[in-house]
Amino acid sequence: MPRLQIRRTIICDPNFSLIIFAPVGDFVPTALRAVAPGGAVVSAGIHMSDIPSFPYEILWGERIVRSVANLTRQDGLDFLKVVPQAGIKTQTTAFPLVEANDVLTRLRTGQILGAAVLTP
């Protein structure tokens, strides 16, 4: 299993992905240099300063730069209020935590409709 390096503002598994929590665009080229080909650099901050220009060679190798949407708790509560009005229906099935490996297999093979929830 790859060793994770944890710093104040970055979580890195250099073989797969690197998550930047700091709002510092200058970290993106550094992160691209640290992640292996095929890996991803994810910006997890709500705001970030501009990302500086960088040489294509550090993006080459199917590296990915992406951002994730960050919402506040209130955003989530507001969204949940309108879900019924939008006609969104969810389906979940609860499983005991001890069945996690079997549940993952069932998810991979399409045997579970909706979301699987593991409970203690």
Can you summarize this structure?
The chain has 120 residues and is an alpha/beta fold. It has helices at residues 27-34, 73-86, 100-108, and strands at 5-6, 10-13, 17-20, 40-43, 64-67, 92-96, 115-119.
Q: Which structural traits does this protein have?
A:
five-stranded mixed beta sheet; alpha/beta; 26% helix; 120 residues; disordered N terminus
Report on this structure.
The chain is α/β, with parallel strands linked by helices. The chain contains 3 helices and 7 strands. The strands form 2 sheets. A 5-stranded mixed sheet has the order 1-2-3-4-5, with helices on one face. The protein starts with a strand and ends with a strand. The N terminus is likely disordered.
* Sequence of strands across the biggest β-sheet: 1-2-3-4-5
**Fraction of residues in β-strands:** 15-25%
Q: What radius of gyration results from the CA coordinates?
A: 19 Å
Q: Roughly what is the average pLDDT, rounded to an integer?
A: 82
Assembly category = single chain
User: How many angstroms does the end-to-end distance come to?
Assistant: 25 Å
Q: What can be said about the biggest beta sheet?
A: 5 strands, mixed
Which percent bin holds the helix content?
25-40%
In DSSP terms (H or I, runs of 4 or more residues), the helix count works out at 3
Extract low-pLDDT stretches. 1-8
How many strands in all? 7
Q: Which structural class matches the secondary elements?
A: alpha/beta
Shape: extended
The arrangement of helices and strands along the chain is EEEHEEHEHE
